[in-house]
Design a protein that fits this description.
Length: 129
């Protein structure tokens, strides 16, 4: 699942960077690129790149992965809702796949962590103790 999360994060970042570089290709931009379209494409691109970088780093290091996967999945769910409500249905398939991967991985990680036995830690007591 780690590789799949990294792949999805990279894909999201790639679409974000493409939106920044070519705002005309950003979903919903019709009739010329306006200042608002350029602004929102840049916002999306920066957000996608930063979230992807955090997901990749945390998956690679294994620290803090669960909350980051929940956050990344939640952002994708928000993108799905924005796409549906705004009528930009082209946003929905990719965001759906990304949300499923991130949230599914978080769920599996949470299940695995709950099954681990709690091991009591003891402090060294020295000789005879």
């Amino acid at each position: 699942m780690r590789g799949l999360n990294v792949l999805v994060a990279l894909g999201s970042a790639a679409f974000g960077v493409l939106a920044m570089l070519t705002p005309a290709g950003y979903p919903g931009v019709a009739g010329g690129v306006t200042h608002a379209a350029t602004f929102f494409a840049a916002m999306y691109g920066v957000r996608a790149a930063l979230i992807a970088a955090a997901v990749i780093w945390l998956v690679a290091t294994g620290r803090g992965v669960f909350p980051m996967l929940v956050l990344a999945g939640g952002v994708q769910v928000a993108d799905i809702l924005v796409g549906v409500v705004s009528g930009r249905l082209g946003m929905v398939p990719g965001a759906t796949i990304a949300a499923a991967v991130h949230l599914g991985s978080a769920w599996l990680l949470g299940r695995r962590d709950r099954r681990r036995p709690v091991v009591a830690r003891t402090w060294p007591t020295g000789e005879g103790g």
